[in-house]
Write a structure and sequence with these properties.
elongated; about 0% strand; mainly alpha
């Protein structure tokens, strides 16, 4: 595949397709009211989900991989240590938390 030189890049920019700002998804439609509603939904989570959420938020940065995801095995060890839950219960609660947050 041939690489483009700077003139071709300039032509791509100059003759490029323009999109209205409203259609580009740059404008965010959040208001203080919608933020409050989202916070209320998070506060309404079941107690077990709230415990798991707080543990997740309090984790040190070393618990996260480069792509921003939590190392599952280390997370399970921390939750077991702090709550005494078994692996099945941790999985059920984390799945319920995930479903609750995805539904918002």
């Amino acid at each position: 595949m041939k690489e483009k030189d700077s003139i071709e890049h300039a032509a791509d920019v100059y003759f490029g397709k323009w999109v209205p700002v409203e259609d580009a998804g740059l404008i965010e439609h959040t208001t203080p009211e919608t933020i409050l509603l989202e916070k209320d939904k998070i506060r309404a989570l079941p107690r077990e989900c709230e415990i798991l959420k707080n543990i997740l938020i309090d984790l040190p940065e070393e618990m996260f991989l480069l792509n921003g995801r939590v190392k599952r095995s280390l997370f399970n060890k921390v939750v077991k240590k702090k709550t005494g839950w078994d692996s099945d219960r941790i999985k059920k609660v984390s799945d319920r938390l995930k479903q609750s947050l995805e539904s918002y």
